[in-house]
Amino acid sequence: MPDLGAIITAIVTPFGDDGRVDEVGFVRLLKHLAANGSDGVVVAGTTGEASTLDDDEHLALIELAVEEAPDGFSIIAGAGSNDTRHAVELTAKASELGADAILSVTPYYNRPNRRGVVRHYEEVAKSTDLPIVLYNIPSRTGLDMPNDLLAELAQIENIIGVKQANNDNLAMVDGLQLYAGNDDVLAKVLDLGGSGGILVASHIVGPEMRRMVDEPNERASIHEELQTVFEALSVAPAAISTKAALEMLGLPGGVPRLPYVEADESERAVIRTMLEARGFVGVTT
Fold first, then answer.
1. Whole-structure pTM over 0.90, yes or no?
2. Which residues are marked as active site?
3. DSSP-based three-state secondary structure for 230
4. Measured between alpha carbons, how far is residue 18 from residues 15, 58, 192, 252, 257 in Å?
5. What is the pLDDT of residues 65-110, one digit of tens each?
6. pLDDT tens digits, residue range 247-265?
7. Which CATH number fits domain 7-215: 3.40.50.1100, 1.10.10.10, 3.90.79.10, 3.20.20.70?
8. Which of 18, 87, 253, 271 is the most exposed place for a label (fewest CB within 10 A)?
9. Which residues touch 178 (CB under 8 Å, ≥6 apart)?
């Protein structure tokens, strides 16, 4: 099994006021994460607003991340689609750009049956030699992959893990590395023997989440301390709240793309209160 790291941040995509990708801001944020607890990033995932990126933007971000990543820092390319042909094309191109692994979400909206899911991932797997991490997030896709289906998919060569965002399915599966898909279950996944998490709060509290890996005896207490962070960042969709928090800390979050809108004042107040309570210096309004 490849070692992609334990703390993997689903990096936001900064957009400028003109709506374009802020590549300078993206690189600055990437390097900030690498210096603050993250072992790697998922580029163009859910929190990266992949659903509003066109393919040129999507692939350019992956290429930029590969070029700018420090040595040993994993770049996992989000390359899923509800159109198998499109998923295959994105996966193949991301692989050519030098990503370390692929994150592949279940087909959303059209909600294929079990045989369709298997066939979808068989085709995706044929398009790359890279390790593939499945992404199970039924709250967004309308489709859940139960653990027996995950075990079946684990038989496909180069499918090596799952980002599990259905807390009810949280269990080790033979042949798959388990990654927490929700920040609030990172401790549980680590206790189960999982590999780590693909996380959002690590934008803000990466060193603390790193400690949950490195200091297992302190894991439960760190988890409790971070509950206010998880709650504050859930006041709006993750990309919105995380971007607001980053901007308050003087880091490049940028504005969201429609249909996401910027955090309103009540949402910002919750996020600001959390940051101030944690002792961050220089929190802006």
1. yes
2. 135, 163
3. helix
4. 8, 17, 45, 15, 10
5. 999 999 999 999 999 999 999 999 999 999 999 999 999 999 999 9
6. 999 999 999 999 999 999 9
7. 3.20.20.70
8. 18
9. 161, 162, 164, 170, 171, 172, 189, 192, 193, 194, 195
